[in-house]
Design brief:
The structure is a homodimer. The first copy, chain A, is an all-alpha fold and about 230 residues long. Chain A has two domains: about 25-70, Arc Repressor Mutant, subunit A (Orthogonal Bundle), CATH 1.10.10; about 75-225, Tetracycline Repressor, domain 2. Chain A has ten helices and no strands. Chains A and B meet through helix 1, helix 6, helix 7, helix 8 and helix 9 of A and helix 1, helix 6, helix 7, helix 8 and helix 9 of B. Chain A binds a DNA duplex (18 and 18 nucleotides) through helix 3. Chains A, B: Pfam families: TetR_C_3, TetR_N.
DNA sequence: GTCTATATGACGATAGAC
DNA sequence: GTCTATCGTCATATAGAC
């Protein structure tokens, strides 16, 4: 748990290179997919330490030892899940936060995409949140290379938009974290939100109201361009 | 862990009413304070499941069994820590988000206070985040009564400010969650922020830049009043 | 390749000496 | 009131039968 992962990636599935293990067969792929899906649910519910391999096995409908056979240790399984999540996590920004778009259109599309992620894959969002809360030891290399470059590209986009007078100058890192924290709250803090609204679980209308609130904060900011000219 | 707590509070320290336990003595108070402080650090680092009573005992400088003697089970200790945190958590809003203040002054003071909390008690913020991620089972009653009323008071404040044309109409629940998620990110997501900035830990300048970004989003929103009149 | 049965170790909790 | 030594439980991991 405290061990540092190899710098190449999030800790890719080690089992494929294990000595003595032949090529993946047909049943293996189905089992692997079921285990990964179950792991995402269970890790998302309880975090790494709180989750037990037993529960993942039950949820996936496979015998417990098969998980170790396919994925090695619990931590290696966890890293496989993390890697899947991060691949998804970065996608939307390259579609929306690019200089070719109008600023308002870009922000709106991106924020909608992030809210959709919170609604459709809340477990994935929570696993990421747990990992970051723990100090992000398993993904530090990824954050300080891939994610940092990702933010740098957004900074160039904002720079262009600012020169074109579509938005005021702003610290790009902190604007991105503001957007991420607000949108991810609808997955990570959903228990708190639903307790306050009184709804047992978050309803579509909650996501819609949250989306509108975030849009008004961020798009309203773009309007400030006149005041600061 | 899955058991529901009595509806009276977060699950107050049960040890005081234990049969056969005399009144608290003098050394007890020092030990209890040390244990609570250590528990806040350790639970904040690893969450409930990830933390071990052993580590808390080491950190507090007391033998492990004393923790059980003072606080009963690990979960009861955890609930004591949670209760301490929540008391602090609500304080600032009653100082700042009240109709007597100007809207801009109120939002600025409140956001500064929340950022100060993230900087000064990051472990407390993280414990709360872990608990909410887990589904908030230990604090559900508290969230659906105390916190809900707390939000309702903010809603009345915003209503007044809106009538006085100091800010546009907005959904108060989602505005509060936007502010909470943005400010708490500087404790809960600090590992991610520092990985992106390249600083080993968050520096004062990071908190300041974050504060300015959040202020511009929220105070800029107040300016929108003219557009929507 | 797959699964049953078991080894190993860590943790929470307590009994009982001081 | 305080602490040493220990018990029972449960989870990860593996050895070995099929």
């Amino acid at each position: 748990m405290t061990e540092t992962l190899p710098p190449s990636s999030v800790g890719r599935a080690v089992h494929r290179t294990r000595p003595g293990t032949p090529r993946p067969g047909i049943p293996r792929q189905a089992a692997e997919a079921a285990i990964l899906a179950a792991a995402e649910r269970v890790f998302g519910l309880h975090g790494f330490r709180g989750a037990s391999v037993n529960e993942i096995a039950r949820e996936a409908g496979v015998p417990k030892p098969n998980i170790h056979y396919y994925f090695g240790t619990k931590e290696e399984l966890y890293c496989s899940v993390l890697e899947n999540i991060m691949t998804f996590w970065l996608r939307d920004a390259d579609d929306w936060l690019v200089p070719e778009r109008r600023a308002r259109e870009g922000f709106e599309g991106y924020i909608r995409a992030k809210m959709a992620f919170s609604r459709e894959r809340p477990d994935a969002s929570r696993i990421f949140a747990y990992e970051v809360l723990q100090g992000a030891g398993n993904i530090h290399h990824y954050l300080s290379t891939t994610l940092r470059e990702h933010v740098a590209r957004r900074a160039r986009t904002f720079e262009v938009w600012h020169r074109e007078r579509q938005m005021p100058a702003i610290d790009p890192v902190h604007l991105m974290f503001a957007i991420w924290s607000m949108t991810q709250a609808y997955a990570d803090m959903s228990a708190q939100i639903s307790a306050v609204t009184g709804h047992a679980v978050l309803h579509d209308s909650d996501f819609e109201a949250g989306l509108q609130t975030i849009l008004r904060l961020v798009l309203g900011f773009c309007n400030d361009i006149e005041d600061r000219a």
